[in-house]
From TrEMBL, chains A, B:
Superkingdom, taxonomy of origin: Bacteria
Any one GO molecular-function label of the UniProt entry: transferase activity
Pfam families: GST_C, GST_N_3
Keyword Repressor: no
Lineage, broadest ranks: Bacteria, Pseudomonadati, Pseudomonadota, Gammaproteobacteria, Methylococcales
Limits of the GST C-terminal domain: 86-201
Domain named GST N-terminal: residues: 1-81
UniProt keyword annotations, A-Z: Transferase
Species per Swiss-Prot/TrEMBL record: Methylomonas denitrificans
Protein name: Glutathione S-transferase
Keyword NADP attached: no
Length: 201, 201
């Protein structure tokens, strides 16, 4: 059985909830009380020394990091549609997973945490990172419907949540029409699930 | 033929140079003049809209992002030793690629750019990120020789350069004995190559 160590308002957790739903995989949710500091307790640090959610437990196999969990689910349960066997599309997916782990996390996601939960951040640096990555993604999606190849991949799932949550960080996502059109394609996928605060058509 | 768009002092480029050497793959180096701003010119932005190095060109297939290039080379040329077929080790590798793209880039790598090239950064935040990630990796390597499984993988190659360059960022890497022992294992790999400023035994 799959258990997701989860926090409802986390966009990183939502990446996993979305892929689990698109793959139609049953799973249990184990809420981690971030306000109460449960993520820094010994039980959770054993699962993930970084003290973060999400963590996935699949019959005792423990995986930390939202991108890594997407890789695991795609490879183990997704078939070739979700995990191509060719090196070139795999590398393109990996490049967007890096973008999700770095620029998306340190731009739109960080601004949201600041605006929504009051975390102190360097807002100028986060704003600059957000503008750059949103501009690059919007331009990329001008020429193609999905981030890699001609169908949805875990690249889209990794990048999507914090872009769709960007308005909560004070960003004007309406200025990026190709991103909005991509949101609409993602929302139309069978099994799509949303979360509070997320962009809606 | 493989061409690496490279900058000699970049630890991200060194990840690629190191794996190319370990895999004994011939390649051409195309230096990108970062001081002259070549990375922001139209030719390079066409290869990588993020305006960064490294970029790999393998007979016309263009790959941006150092982690993605490692994935490409491992999958295409490395065999199962470098790219396991099982979902669980792949996910563990992917988790460390995220750590390389985020915490290692925003901790030790950022401090080095600040100390070495004078880039303005939030030194307190970068120092905190560096301390956390170095502590976690040192603890992880107390129980195992390599970051994932029982042999070297691209997880090690992705994380190694900016840890071995950490002294250039003013960090005392000697405080992490398990990391030092792991450096020694990496330096002993057939085909290992170093770069200026890197930790040496």
């Amino acid at each position: 059985m799959i258990t997701l160590y989860d926090m409802p308002l986390s966009g990183n957790c939502h990446k996993v909830r979305l892929l689990l739903s698109l793959l139609d995989l049953p799973y249990l949710i184990q809420a981690v009380d971030l306000r109460g500091g449960e993520q820094r307790g010994p039980a959770h640090l054993q699962r993930n020394p970084f003290g973060q959610v999400p963590v996935l437990d699949d019959d005792g196999l423990i995986i930390r990091d939202s991108q890594a969990i997407l890789v695991y689910l795609a490879k183990r349960y997704g078939g070739e549609q979700w995990w191509p066997d060719d090196a070139y599309p795999l590398a393109q997916i990996a490049a967007w997973l890096s973008t999700a782990a770095n620029e998306v996390a340190n731009g739109p996601a960080k601004l949201r945490v600041h605006h929504k939960f009051g975390s102190p951040i360097d807002t100028a640096a986060a704003g600059q990172t957000a503008d750059k990555v949103l501009g690059i993604i919007d331009h990329h999606l001008q020429r193609q419907d999905w981030l890699v190849g001609d169908s949805v991949s875990i690249a889209d799932i990794a990048v999507y949540p914090y872009l769709a949550l960007a308005p909560e960080g004070g960003l004007d996502i309406g200025a990026f029409p190709n991103i909005i059109a991509w949101f609409q394609r993602i929302c139309a996928l069978p099994g799509y699930v949303t979360m509070p605060g997320m962009w809606q058509a």
